[in-house]
Queue: 4 jobs
Job 1
Amino acid sequence: MKILIVLTYYRPHISGLTIYAERLAKAFARKGHQVTILTSQFKKELPREEVVEGVRIIRAPVLFRLSKGVIMPTFGWLASKLAAQTDVIQLHLPQFDAAGISLRGRLLKKPTVITYHCDLLLPPGLLNRFANLAVEFMNWLTAIFTHQIVTYTRDYAENSRYLKAKMKKVMIIPPPVELPIVRPEEVRAFSNRHNPRKQHPVIGMAARFATEKGVEVLLGALPGVLERYPDTLVQFVGPYQNIIGEEEYFERLSYRIKEYEAKGNWQFLGSLNPEQMAAFFPNLDLLVLPSLNSTEAFGLVQIEAMMNGIPCVASELPGVRQPVLRHGMGRIFPIGDLKGLTDAILEVLSHKENYETNKTPFSIYEPEVVATEYDDLFEKIKNTI
């Protein structure tokens, strides 16, 4: 089967959406499908076309940016060409350009599926408000033309303004999650390199440094944690400087973070490759996800941590709370509640043995299992159009 996957940003960009798309695309390729990614050339040094692990990647040149969006004059032409050559189309939303592609899929009678990752809520500002409205409008059009909408959890679907109005088209498929296997000596080497003083406990946060991630909530909870555990080390993994649209957010919080860095309680590790992430998780005592709004819909890193026996503390956002509720490995706390986060962290650290048992098998997240569910969905749609 020829599968066309379309999204605004693909690897090497780092986000839950791009990681999901990459894992699924590679799983499709391993199953013998011909997979093509249509995305943006968001960095000029990226090749216009390449093949990575059996996945063909085509990048449309970017003329200019509009907030976090990109304007690509040749995107429509490429979409028309590739849509005509494919068997099925998978669109990752939110995405400004998706409406035109879903219309092409409908006209060409190609099964067209949306994978809906999250609602779009850009930071305040006139330009961002305009961009938000434009993307929301295009997403609504996309839903009209597409055959099916996939999302991670029913919890999120029933609470998303976009999804709850289209529940007849919504299907739940768990996200693909996998980590490389690393040797114990690699885990120890990671600890020796990044925590030579053997500080304890180690609290991890793995995310882009973005407004919706709630970094300030963790910063606000940290004094209470340090009162009980003065040697606490927070390790922040992910891009944190020069994030498009988040420069002011980083600047606003940087002075507080520098104080903790100077005291040895905060450490930026930057972006890590999959092997490094696999060594990062086992060195943690706890992972936190203090996300603030529906731009966060699940948090793949929670499953990655839990697969390594590491409990999580997550905000009580629809979807985001599901890994903890489903697997029982951690606590949830009220959204944005500093004391709530402090108490949840201290509870898990004090009784870690109560949060290390998984209630539900992790096999539902295996990329091949997820890809098979999509295969079945594509075949079902084919038989109805």
Note: Residues 2-176+366-382 form a domain with the Rossmann fold fold (CATH 3.40.50.2000).
Job 2
Amino acid sequence: MYRAELLERLRLPFTKARPEVDETPLPNESPSALAQRLALAKAQAVASVNPSALVIGSDQVADLNGQPLGKPGNFERAVAQLTAMSGQLVIFHTAVALVCHESGFSQQETAVVRVRFRDLSREEIERYVRAEEPYDCAGSAKSEGLGVSLLASMDNDDPTALIGLPLITTCKLLRAAGVVVP
């Protein structure tokens, strides 16, 4: 949903597809490598059934002191993630892969966003999680919504990266594939 809304900004025709990809981290896999592997796997899965299509795959992994934080899935895990991130620097790796099996095109890049969370009380965390239910977001915070109130600072080169699809990076890959943007 978030990525489709972002992609609509580019005014290019597209179709959404949800690939079935196991998102379990491999042993000793860094958060950045995990995001890259999953973005490419998602793009390749869709491209395998649509070989002439130019397919975008993307994945985001939050990195807290080298440990990957995925989607929490429920209230308790979201509270636990945000408690662990309170007062901490969290690095969000948002990987994008662009693949076309027919042409053999395959490129990928990762946008990095460094986010400093405020010192958060248990009450603030629970109030936020109840209000926004960020169960499908890596790191349990939606910066495009109320989650921005949890942050002390953000450092990035692509303001859409934290939402889930770095459009500056995506445009670069699309141009490399021959797509005219704008």
Note: Residues 2-10+27-176 form a domain with the Maf protein fold (CATH 3.90.950.10).
Job 3
Amino acid sequence: MKRSERTAGGRASAPQRCVLVVDDEVDILELIELTLLRMGLDVERAMNVKEALAKLAARHFDLCLTDMRLPDGTGIEIVEQITKTSMDLPVAVITAHGNTENAVAALKAGAFDYLAKPVGLDQLRTLVKSALSLPKANDAKVVEQAQGEKGLLGDSQAIQSVRALIEKLARSEAPVHITGESGSGKELAARLIHQKSVRRERPFVPVNCGAIPENLMESEFFGYKKGAFTGADADRDGFFQAANGGTLFLDEVADLPLPMQVKLLRAIQEKKARKVGSTQEDAVDVRIISATHQNLADCVESGKFRHDLYYRLNVIELRMPALRDMREDIPDIASAILDKLAGQAKVQRPQLEQDALHSLMQYDFPGNVRELENILERAMALCDGQQITMPDLQLTPPEAEEITPTAEGGNGKWPLQEYLDRVEKEAILEALEKTRYNRTAAAKLLGITFRAMRYRMERLGIN
């Protein structure tokens, strides 16, 4: 047995973990090796792709650090080989300073993370600690924890594909962009990625980018120093500092104004944040997950969103399916929602009549799972307490959603009051959605008083 595998008392201890470092520059190899040895790790070297692949095939490693440019190929070839052979091995790539394209390519190929030259030793230590903290894919404890978490329900092919991709994304530090319609579970997916990742013990900070006034954005994201502006009577951390070591979830990221996009891009690239009123930048270790119901590529095309930020955020895309694309899962999802609602209200859980369930499975759910939850909450209030019938659901038939020209002899804008009510209701619901159902913030967004907001909601039957 190796000396490193024995304790001072002669008893066997856990084998020393080993890192494979691949680089053709001897001085960088020696710097990284010395740092890793001081962290109590064993190190093996390789100076080209061929030698690295031979060593990977010969023995087990706990981590691989590889330069991007090698004499006989690239670090991406090593990443792809590790991914292809399903080795349970995190791999990080060292790229030239400012070469975002290579970093993004490595992350898309399956790299855990990347480092930019010149290699900062603090960043190197942080990356190594994070990579070595990753749970093994078949770790029984991790599987047990994952099964106990609030997850994505259903057995349809669409949701199974999402679950599989979440498992893969959780073992990476790559930025993720989640797309999908409103109410399709984008934040839940982001939380699951965080909960299954190496950052699971650190904060998950969700931010609705569309609900922050533009003049407050910089101080909300990066914090401020005492005296930076009128009312700044103490230092305050922003979202980046609050999420340090964890995950920052940027919901509705397409709503960010262009000046803020520039500052966000710099913070992501440099991994530093400067508080308003400060003369120095502070290092922040944050994983970015973003989401929007808009088409971000279209926003780039129209000039509303910066191409370089889009390229930085959209490294890996996770598309959440609409509820109408997984109709076979509606019974299980509805059952789970009823269990939750009954538990919260401390009442007996009502049963869904077969006709009511059939109606739900035929409905298109423009608001997705969130709308299903609202429908069932309303139905529980209207039902007899034992069974939910089809009338209790109060589903709007598709043909009633619009007044057709043939039925009314118009273009859907008559009678005028019905048309105006419909437009007003849509505007209020959109404002509530953007502000996470904060009525005060929604009223401010709409430019009306809170009292007017409450009156309009009551008049239009918005719960």
Note: The two ends are 69 Å apart (CA to CA).
Job 4
Amino acid sequence: MTNIDTTRQPNPSITGGAGGGSKMKNLIVRTLTGIIFIVVMIGGILYSPLTTALLFALITVLSAWEFTGIMNRQEDVELNRFITTVAALMLYLGFFGYTMAISPTLAFLPWLVSMVYLMIAELYLQRQRPIVNWALTMMAQLYIALPFGLLCILRTGSDLELYQLLHGDGAIAVLAIFVFLWCSDTGAYCTGSLIGRHKLFPRISPAKSWEGSLGGAVAALAASQVFNYYAPVFNPLEWAIFAIVVVFFGTWGDLIESLLKRQIGIKDSGNILPGHGGMLDRFDSSLLAIPAVFIYLCTLAVL
């Protein structure tokens, strides 16, 4: 008697077509999201200091909310998600108020009040790991709100020496940070996909390669000279160093978020940006690149 295989075999042409259609749809969604994201970022940064402040206030809130949600996935971690996010916003607005001379001596008081409350609250809530809760609450402030707050200083030119260094055009410096990061990411992806062989940091991010990182650095350096041509705020060497600082610290920022996600056991920090993941997935590189650039520009300003 002949054995008949009753297992239904899929039609390769059908499954291939469905898979191809799904990939194409994801690519279209990812591309449209990316275009809208870039337009909003460039428009918000260049239009005025107020639009820049509003843009990054929103980014601060969404990123802090996402961060606290991720941290609360850990066993025995119980962050007050709402107040920690509000505290991050208050710290950011403190920087904005200070740079705009809106009650500069009092600008940080709302943040201080919220932090004092969060510290004292742990005494009464009887949670399992209060020290971890304190540490992660403070991390949300330093990891997210502080870098974006520094952008207020760069954008408004409230610091006289930075204002003189940037010739009163802080928007160019802020925009350059993100353009260099975008160019670095694109260059790294293309180069790594084509010739990437040697892993950069396999323990944390197996997909990254040394070849890709080099390609990203070359792309950012090329972009720096475009900035030098159209916005000669710095000389060519200073622009090149600016780009290298962004690439190096942006890569470390990306790896830090990769380590964070690996520890928690998640792939993406969120899904607020279709095809691109969460806010931390999009801004992880900038969270370390911004403080590094700020240090670099302050160094140039005093030399």
Note: The chain has two domains: 39-158, 168-303.
